[in-house]
Design goal:
Largest sheet: 2 strands, parallel
Number of strands: 2
CATH superfamily: Response regulator
Structural class: mainly alpha
Number of helices: 4
Shape: globular
Strand content: under 5%
Length: about 120
């Protein structure tokens, strides 16, 4: 069902599959995005509680929400997949906007001339 819903939105997920996150990938990641609390807990348990860059994607939903988690629609009717797709889409757009803003701020700081401290004699 996920492939069918994605295809109606112009996405081909036929080569996509879930896979466990590996320590080398996690240790160099700036951000790990999860869908629910068990995933966030597992990331912190496996990679250490200091891994502070774990984001629950549902927290970015610009619409009012009942839960932070994005529920897996597996084995549910097509409309559950549509709702899940729509929520992920909204959240990803928010994430992209936030990252673009962050990169823009970083770029403008890097491009800004260095100011010298004012000294008095």
């Amino acid at each position: 069902m996920a492939l069918e819903v994605a295809a109606t939105h112009g996405l081909d997920l036929s080569n996509h599959g879930s896979r466990p996150i590996a320590l080398p990938a996690a240790s160099v990641s700036d951000l790990i995005i999860v869908m629910d609390r068990p995933q966030a807990s597992a990331v912190r348990r496996i990679f250490g509680p200091a891994h502070r860059h774990v984001l629950m994607l549902g927290d970015l939903d610009p619409e009012p929400i009942d839960t932070r988690e994005i529920q897996d629609p597996f084995d549910q009717p097509k409309d559950a997949y549509e709702r899940c797709y729509a929520r992920i889409n909204r959240c990803v757009h928010q994430l992209v906007d936030a990252l673009a803003d962050s990169v823009g701020r970083t770029s403008s700081r890097a491009a800004a001339p260095q100011r010298r401290p004012v000294t008095t004699t």
